[in-house]
Amino acid sequence: MMATKKPKKFKSKSWRESATVRKQRLAVILGELTNLYPDANCALHFDNPWELLVATILSAQCTDERVNKETPALFSRYPTVESMAEAPIEDLEQLVKRTGFYRNKARAISESAKAIVDRYESKLPKSMEDLLTLRGVARKTANVVLGTAYGITSGIVVDTHISRLSQRLGLTRQKDPEKIEQDLMKLLNSTHWVFFGHALIWHGRKVCNARKPKCPECSLQKLCPSMTL
Length: 229
Hints:
By secondary structure, this protein is an all-alpha fold. 54% of the residues lie in helices and 0% in strands.
């Protein structure tokens, strides 16, 4: 029996470049992403900031496609933050069950809704500091809401796609999401933070996926220090 050939691992060769050179390379990467995905935006469906917060909480370890299939029934039954705050937790669990980790997600949605009603007059706050007080909300979720729903540039969303691609592209050697975000923020002008996050996520889904990246087809290949071939 022939031995199964193991896939080659990505190996970054970018760490000898200076921060200035890395910024210049990222500027070219950004330009290419702009050409590839000029309309890149959030794939989650929502009609208001509260719905986006709920959808983003549900998207943890779940695909946006699945979340978009489940939220219409949830928002139809509980259309406002006030109604969500009063919803029986068992009902919320059933409505979000197919997104995975449904008990934790239902609890986060319920407690966040109650906090928004009690502390923020039923209006989703517009600051990172306030959003982080809500259950189930970390910087990733807060950045999604602030950047997408409010147009407020507070940071760069770091999900599994951005974490993977930023390491493959040699933009960070960190693994912690907050440290990755800090590295990216140092390299990129804040005016591009929101778009860059959306575009990199799109590229991660379409080309540079986790298991079988399409390196020969990737227009970023010449800018990428990682090689699989």
